[in-house]
Here is the input.
Amino acid sequence: MNFQNNRYTLKFADSSDNAGIREIFESSAFDGGISVQYLRNPKPYESFLADGEDAKILVILDNKEGRTAAVGGAVVRREYLNGKAEKCAYLTGLKIHSDYQKKISFIAKAYGFLHEEISDCKCCYTTILDDNLPAISMFEKKHKHMPEYRYLGHYTTYCFHGGKKIIDIEKDNLEGFDKLMETHFAQKSLTPVNYNYRGFGEKSFYCVRENGEIIACCFVGNQQGYKQYKMNSYGGIYKLLSKLPTRFFGYPEFPKADSIVNHGVVSYLYIRDYDVKLCEKFLRSVAAEAGFSLLIWGGFENNPLCGTLDRMRTVHYGSRLYSVLWEEGDEISGVIGMEAALL
Here is the structure.
């Protein structure tokens, strides 16, 4: 589909668009005191596909310059919604190359084009970083021919490390986990039904048992073959903190500027009765055992485990969670179990 006197073409991406999408990701970074680039190298399109059953990724091509101007779309996967397994769509966010900011005038039509492809999904949702004030301002205002971004609450991503192993943990014995999926995780909206998406990375399962029953567990995945965080630079107080031995005080060590963060991602975290002491001992021990520079876990504001992570020494950043509505649909309610690994 062509726009602006055939200057631009809007189409769904395929593998041939990898180089153009990669250039857009590399042209942008998270702003703020800690400047980070979120990358999907080496093949961004395949990285999107790894996060679900399907990916409806749109690209805008500049026909005159032979460049990719923008990318955005949705990853489609089955997730629990109000206790039932449903087809859901996560909007990956619209990324416009810095050279094309304010030059593209048909964004609303692009959203309509996308909606046609995901209209059979029970719900559609997205996240926007707290620091991305222009995007928050734009999407929270209602625009003609655009979906409504209905704010649901705050989502926090925590980064932490291990130190020494505190308690004994068992590795790669999933006995009893399927039962937890039915009785625990299925009750949390937006929890992926399939815990084996490639987007979780090459993962290991860690648990603690009592009388054979799992009382604490999680997966830790190495997803650096699909997604990377590149530390660009530090500003303000973080420039000073990055030079201090923060690990000595129980916080993660700040990665060096211009380096790829050696991170692992925690998913399907379960702590029986949300026991604060058990949770901290378990996560510290898992982090020590897994061997990454830092581990990442994310939780929505109504997840009781966030209270535990708030008591730990972590570096964290926040996002806003939105339900994206073209028309009234199923409400996202209850405790939300969205996994940071697939965002």
